[in-house]
Amino acid sequence: MSAPDVEVLVVGAGITGIYQLHRALEAGFSALLVEAGDGVGGTWFWNRYPGARFDSESYTYAYLFSRELFEEWEWQEHFAEQPEIERYLNHVVDRFDLRGHIRCGAQLTGAVWGDDGWTVTVADGSQITSRFLIAATGVFSVPYFPDVPGRESFRNPSHHTARWPAAGVDVAGKRVAVIGTGSSGVQLIPLVAEEAAELTVYQRSANWCTPLNNAPITADEQARLRADFERIREILNTSASGFLHTPHDRATFDDSEDERLAFFERMWNSPGFSKLISHYTDVMFDPAANAVWCDFIAEKVRGLVDDPEVAERLIPTDHRFAEKRPPFVTDYYETYNRPNVSLVDLKATPIVRITETGIETSEGLRELDVIVWATGFDFGTGALTRMGIRGRNGLALEEHWADGPKTFLGVQAAGFPNLFFPGGPHAAAGNNPRYNGDQVDFITDALVHVRARGSTTIEVDPEAEDRWTDMVDSNAGLSSFGESSYYFGTNIPGKPRKFLLNSGGRPKLFKEIARVKATDYQAFRFS
Ligand code: NAP
Fold it and tell me: Which of 51, 201, 249, 319 has the smallest C-beta neighbourhood within 10 Å, fewest atoms?
C-alpha cells in the first residue's frame, strides 16, 4: 500500500471509539473516526427513548483518563439520563479537540485487507485507506426485530428503542404498545404510561427488576468525588467488576433469617449494581441462596402491585436472579396500578400477527396508535459480522465466526491483520467502559510496539486465538448467566449458542495482557 489516508481508522463514536481516537492521536498516529449516526455517543446517541439512563454510577461509567475532565464535569444524578450523557460525550470530543477527526453520517459498508492495510468503503461510495482498522462498533448496536407476521403492515408509527427519533415520539393521548420488558422496556414503560391514553405492555418473560435508587448528586458528594478521584480511579481500574461497590464477605445462610431479611432490605434500597457486587457471596450461584432472594423480590412485587393476578405475571418463573442481566427500575411495578396500563402475557396469549391497525394475539385484536419494539439486540457479534470485513485471502469475518466468535483477548481474530475490535465479543463482563478502556489501552500499546519495531502489520497467532476462545467457552458455565440470556446469542433465532462475554473476567484479561508484554508480544506475528 502506498501511504494510507490515515494510520488509524476508528469505527464508531461511542464511549470506546472516542477514547480510542483520543489515545491514537495522543500516541502520535494520524487518525480518523467514522460514525454512522449524525452525532457522537454510540449507544447513548441511538438509545434516546424516554427514561434511557445509566444504571452504573455516572462517575464510574465516565472517562478516568483526565483528572481535569473528571473535576470539571459535574454529573447531575448518580445515574445520568441520556441527554446528559450525550452532552458529556460531546463535551469530551470538543475538550480534547477530537471533532475535526470525526466524520459522522458515514456508515461503513465494507473493509478489505490489502498487503499491509485496509481499504474501507463508506455508504456514500467513498473509500478510506488505513494502516490499522479499529472497529469500536459496540455490542448493542444492531437492534433486533422479531420476525412477527405482518410487522411491516402496521400503518401508524412504530419504533425500536434503539432507533428512537431525535425529535421524539408523540405518545400523548395515544394508544401505545410496548413489546419487550428487558432493561430498555422497563425504563421506558413508566414514562410512556404518564402520557399515553392507554399503554399495553406485551411481556413474554418477566424479569427480576429491582430499584435503581437514583438520586441527584449533592454539592457535598460532588466535592467528595473530586477529592477522592485518585482512589476512585484506582478501584475502578483494578477491581474485577469495574464498579465502586464493595464485595460482601458473608454467604446467605451465614446469617439468621432476621439478619438476612434486614440485609435483603438494605440490598433492595441500595443503588444499581450493588445488588450484584455487594450481595451475599453465594446469591448468584447457590440455587438455595438465589431462591430466598427471589422470594424476597416476589413479595416486594406483590406488595407494590395492587392486582394480585398482574403481580404474579410480573414475577419470573423461568429463570433465577442474575441468570439474565437484571434490569434496574424506577416506579416500574407501581406503573401497573395505573388505570390506563395493562399487561398482556405473551406466553398465555401469543402474538398471532401485526395488522395495519394493531396487534392481534390469540385473545383478539388491540387497535393501536404507536408500537414500541423494546426487543433487544443482536448482541456482541451483530455489528462486526455485518460490516463486510474481508481479511487475509478474502476471509469473511462472518465465515470465520460462523460457529461463534473466535478472538484473542476480545481484541483480534486470526486472519485479520491490523484489525482490532475493543468492546466487542469476548470483552466485558462488568462495567463496560472500564473493560473496554483496558482493551483500548492494550491496543494503543500494541500499535506503538508495531511502530517501534519498524513493522507495519500485527496479527494474532491462531494458537493464541484458540487458547483464549477455549478459555471463554470452557468457563462459560461458571458465569451466573444462563443460556436463555442474550449473552449466549439465544435471543436471535439461528445464532450459534456461544458465550459472548469474557468468561474469565477482568483478572484473566489483565493476566494475559501482562503475559503478552512480558513475552514481547509472542502471541502476535509481525511483518
Ligand atoms: P433485552 O434485554 O434483550 O430484552 C428484550 C425484550 O424483548 C425481552 O423482554 C424479550 O423477551 C422481548 N422479546 C424478544 N423477542 C420477542 C418476541 N418475539 N416477542 C415478544 N417479546 C420479545 O433488550 P433490552 O431491553 O434492549 O436490553 C439489552 C441490554 O442493553 C440490557 O441487558 C443492558 O445490558 C443494556 N441496557 C442498559 C441500560 C442501562 O444501562 N441503563 C438500559 C437499557 C439497556 P424474553 O425475555 O422472553 O426473551
Answer: 249
